[in-house]
Each structure stands twice: as structure tokens, then as C-alpha cells.
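Good morning C.,

I know you're traveling, so I'll keep this short. The sequence:
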Amino acid sequence: MKKSYKLIILIIISLFLTNYSIAKEIRTRFGFFINLPNEFIAIQDQNLGELMQEYEGSDMDKEFFNEFMAGSSKSEMNIEYYFPQKIDPERNSININYQRDTSLDEIIKQVDLATEVCPYYLQVYKDLFKKNIKQYYCKFNNNLKFKYKNIIQIKHDGPFKDTYMIQYQFDVNRKMVTLTVGCQIKHCKYMENVGTNIIKSIN
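The C-alpha cells, ready to paste straight into the viewer:
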């Protein structure tokens, strides 16, 4: 009885680990590689027709994707988007922005995080969303210190009701990367976990 019980536990653990380890390595438009879970779709070169064939969402979601990509050319996009297939992609997404002319390590030598950087971002997003929003934290993330010299983590209210926007800023090849997680509150733990795993996988 004990042996069969242990076997069941081992099977459950292996299934759990398998579900969370399935990912595909993709090359970003910025030149570095990331691991992206299989249940996410990457918009890299505007192959929207292929995207729509893969996507299992509603007609409303498809309309959102069409509006989202309308009028943008590949050369204009300095940002890459990753959308989940199984939850609302309008309110849950991840994107990476790569600023080739900026270094976070250089910025924080010149400005103070608490008195200059954090208030600046709060005002930027108030203006962008055209509403009063809350900044929940703006801090250095020491959990990822093993991989990045400096990494800033910021959390604000998102543009939609009951959403958050969580951002990570760090340098890759001496250029600043901003990874943004937009999420419905009920999905934020999952989305943030995907985001931090993407950050850890960058190579």
C-alpha cells in the first residue's frame, strides 16, 4: 500500500513539473532569446493571419487583435507582445520594450529611485491612462540580483478596472529592457510568474 501511495505522489509531482516546464525558446526581435510558455502567442513580425489561426478565443478577442495591430509597421515596433491563449488577452498580456539608447545602470547613477524615478512613472501612467491611479510599490528587486546588477520592479493600477500593471526594468547587453505584465487581479500571480520566468530565461 505504501509503495503504491509513493508511486502516485511521484506521478503527481512529475505531472506538475511537466505542466510548468513546457516552453519554447524564441529569438526576440532584439537579438536575445527567451523561453515562452506554449500557451502564449508571440507577436513579433505581425503575422496576424497565422496568429488568428492559432488563437482559440472569441470573435471579440479577434477584433481586439486586429485593432491592436492596425496601422503599425514592423519597422515602427520597438516592442514585442506575448498573449495568453486561455485567458482574456486584452487584459492579460506581457510585452518587452528594448531601448537601445538607454542604460538603466547609467540612469540610476544620476537619479534617485524614490524621489525622482518612482514619482515620474506614476505621473506618466496617470497621464497615459487619463485617470488617477495608485502606485503600490517602486523598488529594487533583489531576488533577481544573481542575474542582473540592477533591476527595478514597479506596480501600478492598470488601464482597466480590476487590473494591475507590473513592470521590471533591467539592462541586457548594456541596453535597458522594460518587461511589462498587464493582468486581471485574479490572474496576476500566474502572469507575474510567467514574466519573471521570461526574465530569468533571457540569454
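Safe travels,
E.
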